[in-house]
Amino acid sequence: MKVLHVEGGRNLYGGARQVLYLLEGLEQRGIDNVLVCPAGSELAREAAAHAEVHAIPMSGDLDFRLIGRLYRIIGRVRPDLAHLHSRIGADVMGGIAARLAGVPVVHSRRQDNPEMRWAVAVKYRLHDRVVAISEGIARVLASEGLPAAKLRVVRSAIDPAPFLQPGDRPGFRTEFGLPEDCTVIGVIAQLIERKGHRFLLEALPELTGRYPGLHVLLFGKGPLESSLIETVRHLGLADRVHFAGFRDDLPRILPCLDLVVHPALREGLGISLLQAAAAGVPIVASRAGGIPEAVRDGDNGLLVPPGDAAALAAAIRRLLDDRDLARDMGQRGRALIGREFSVEGMVEGNLAVYRELLAEKGSPLS
Description:
- This protein has 15 helices and 13 strands.
- The chain is α/β, with parallel strands linked by helices.
- It folds into two domains: 2-157 and 342-360, Glycogen Phosphorylase B (Rossmann fold), CATH 3.40.50; 161-340, Glycogen Phosphorylase B (Rossmann fold, 3-Layer(aba) Sandwich).
- GO terms for molecular function: glycosyltransferase activity.
């Protein structure tokens, strides 16, 4: 079997990292992979060991020339099917190109943002299967009219091994300029509106008054950075909230955190939550999208209503005040990852979708 994968992300964030996991797992199972991704991207470099890589210009949702580029690549490599892994133009332009070439199409949906029913009816007509990475996303798609016959759920996954190492807390404190007796909350998310950073900032004055050693590290970049910095200054919390930028060494950092907070308004699943759980860190998060699949309320963390700063503060207080409970939740998080979010399970789930689709199309399986 030969599979053409299309991923429009340039950096190895959650979605592109999933593609890399999938390419490696499929290669181990004897599947021939062809990857189309942006020229100069991190994914292009990392995937070269597991796929025939075509790094081409990809300019987003309105890059209509992408149709021709993909059509020509499909004609040359002759895949059995195409798997479109992202939006950023790949879902629509890739779907059109594959349809023109007569190749079956699988599309992975990673976000839970709502779409108009007419858009769902038009766009997903291009796809033979739509793979939701969480039950939460699947519910959104079903509510918008996507036929059940097209919809499958294959959860995203992580490799927990890098997150099992103990943290170097003294070195961690020195690196980020934190006092020796501090308590550290981490937020790992792009600095964009739907990640809900403002609700944590709204809760912080009360929390920092109650916990004098409390510090917050915001990991990530995004268009809201300057606005969030100004909000922190306005609240007088510049010495407590630290903008740490994008980091590719989270396996080293996460075990040093006391708590991960994720106050998102929408979230497909939350790879950073899976990583935190693998590192044994308890989590406070919003009950939004696919988050309840990654954070089981009362098991490996606490869930609060989205946009409720008071409830967020109360949940944080509960875990900071009860360190035994927090430690137990961290241990249960590690067990959850091994049980339900393995890379092996994700690879097998996608491969099952491929085989089902090719059998339906009458294509020989290999």
